[in-house]
Amino acid sequence: MSQFSIIDTPLFDLKVIERKPIGDSRGHLARIFCADQLKDAGWKKPIAQINQTMTKSRGTVRGLHFQNPPYAEMKLISCLQGEIWDVAVDLRKNSPTFLQWHAERLSSENYRALLIPEGFAHGFQTLTDDCELLYLHSAPYKPAAEGGIRPNDPHLAIDWPLDFYEISARDSEHPLLNDLFEGIEL
Ligand SMILES: Cc1cn([C@H]2C[C@H](O)[C@@H](COP(=O)(O)OP(=O)(O)O[C@H]3O[C@H](C)C(=O)[C@H](O)[C@H]3O)O2)c(=O)[nH]c1=O
């Protein structure tokens, strides 16, 4: 019996993974990752890297980041403390949902994670103070292969829930998309 519910989204291959905690009088246990049970959701590679971020203030935005081939990566984003509005943008060349975005609320309470395929950009906005995230990556961090998109790029028109409280200088200066951007060829 799987310890996850795999939920489709409007963007093909982008999945919500809902953990099913096993509780008892002491509390609960929940799997964050299980290769056998998540291969049906599209995670078919070893975990290459696991990151953690702590974001102090509500309204902070991190992202939108992606890695280009050959270091294109899947990510499994889990929120272990607080609540975030997690965004994935389809950058796959020739995808029927190219440049479309989808967002999910992830929190320590709803046990929801977002499984983001290769070829997507990822970012989030915190909805509470003190948000702790766990990122599973299917490829190592390669700065030379990393790309970024400005979270308030008018081409995407992402409907962020809050005004941007804080954003890194780097994230606020990513290049804006233009009609010449054809996407990532995987
Ligand atoms: C990703 C990464 C970063 N770093 C270094 C690079 C910088 O010196 C510092 C902070 O990196 P950055 O500002 O890129 O971190 P975020 O803006 O929080 O990016 C994170 O949040 C967005 C939403 C994501 O999707 C990224 O995958 C994730 O890295 O950590 C490392 O040393 N190793 C790593 O694996």
UniProtKB/TrEMBL annotation:
Signal peptide: none annotated. The active site is at H65, Y135. One of its GO terms (biological process) is dTDP-rhamnose biosynthetic process. Its EC number is 5.1.3.13. GO terms for molecular function: dTDP-4-dehydrorhamnose 3,5-epimerase activity. InterPro entries: RmlC-like, RmlC-like_jellyroll, RmlC_Cupin_sf. The record marks Y141 as: Participates in a stacking interaction with the thymidine ring of dTDP-4-oxo-6-deoxyglucose. It catalyses: dTDP-4-dehydro-6-deoxy-alpha-D-glucose = dTDP-4-dehydro-beta-L-rhamnose. It is an enzyme of class 5 (isomerase). Pathway: Carbohydrate biosynthesis; dTDP-L-rhamnose biosynthesis. Keywords: Isomerase. Pfam families: dTDP_sugar_isom. GO terms for cellular component: cytosol. Catalyzes the epimerization of the C3' and C5'positions of dTDP-6-deoxy-D-xylo-4-hexulose, forming dTDP-6-deoxy-L-lyxo-4-hexulose. Belongs to the dTDP-4-dehydrorhamnose 3,5-epimerase family. Homodimer. This is dTDP-4-dehydrorhamnose 3,5-epimerase. It comes from Polynucleobacter arcticus.
